[in-house]
Recover the amino acids of this structure.
């Protein structure tokens, strides 16, 4: 019997292509030095925290490090790429040498992102088959800054679709989520409009993972999410009015936006150029511009969302 075809990895997907090989290399090189590895990463956090807290003092009105798992993960990743073995000693030298030997022998270290325990979005790393979270204190600041455990015990799962993303956004961000029937040209790539608890509205999600999730599936995940009932007219009208001078072509009503968005998903699915890197880069640039306009909307009290059923 032939082995089942292994699906290509999406960017930051919490998965390895060859778990058996990575588990073997992890046992050989990393598990013998788990204590040193943890202390090394804690030392990195200690050197990076003053810089990061000065650069990102708050996020969503919360003080550093709350909500900043991405910023911390990226900073640690950058530091690991810059370190010279000669500048380390003690635990740092032992851990870094183990990481180098692990990598030289085919071990894979990946930055990953997903749904942690059904409670919130989280950025972390895979060191072989180890879950390595260098920003474990970004939801509860009193937690240990670093957590290392077998990936199978981490309960980090990949975001399955846009309904899954919406469910977690509602829970973690206390946000309202609507289908993007307002900007149907961009909706195949970013099919959600998210209204945060402070009133800010944004098109989401611009992560490489979520965009590739839909483009690699011929835009079916976006089509599925956009197929639900038209977004509430009061929300539609309020956001549309804020974008009248943006130069965008906007539908006259949510029902029209829904039809156009679904038609655009079908068109994109039939033409490979819509999934090209150049096209995706262009879309990301345009969405960033639109989101900049959306930030100008007055932050009115939250609008009750009665017309769309609770996600999952």
């Amino acid at each position: 019997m032939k082995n089942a075809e292994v699906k290509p990895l999406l960017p930051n997907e919490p998965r390895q292509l060859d778990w058996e090989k990575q588990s073997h290399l992890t046992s050989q090189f990393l598990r013998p030095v788990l204590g040193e590895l943890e202390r090394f990463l804690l030392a990195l956090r200690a050197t990076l925290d003053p810089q990061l807290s000065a650069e990102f003092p708050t996020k969503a009105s919360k003080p550093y490090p709350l909500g900043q798992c991405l910023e911390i993960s990226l900073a640690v990743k950058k530091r690991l790429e810059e370190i010279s073995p000669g500048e380390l000693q003690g635990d740092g030298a032992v851990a870094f040498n183990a990481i180098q030997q692990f990598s030289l022998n085919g071990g894979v270290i990946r930055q990953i992102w997903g749904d942690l325990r059904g409670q919130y979005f989280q950025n972390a790393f895979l060191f072989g088959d180890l879950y390595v979270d260098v920003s474990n204190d970004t939801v509860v600041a009193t937690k240990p800054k670093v957590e290392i455990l077998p990936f199978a015990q981490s309960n980090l799962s990949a975001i399955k679709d846009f309904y899954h993303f919406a469910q977690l956004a509602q829970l973690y961000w206390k946000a309202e989520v609507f289908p993007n029937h307002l900007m149907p040209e961009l909706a195949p790539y970013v099919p959600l409009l998210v209204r945060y608890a402070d009133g800010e509205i944004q098109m989401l999600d611009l992560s490489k993972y979520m965009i590739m999730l839909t483009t690699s599936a011929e835009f079916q995940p976006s089509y599925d999410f956009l197929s639900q009932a038209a977004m509430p007219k009061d929300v539609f009208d309020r956001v549309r009015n804020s974008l009248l001078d943006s130069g965008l072509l906007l539908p006259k009503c949510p029902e029209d936006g829904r039809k156009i968005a679904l038609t655009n998903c079908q068109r994109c699915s039939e033409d490979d150029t819509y999934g090209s890197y150049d096209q995706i880069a262009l879309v990301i640039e345009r969405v960033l511009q639109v989101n900049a306009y959306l930030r100008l909307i007055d932050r009115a009290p939250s609008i009750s969302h009665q017309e769309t059923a609770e996600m999952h």
User: Anything to note?
Assistant: Residues 299-312 have pLDDT under 50 and may be disordered.
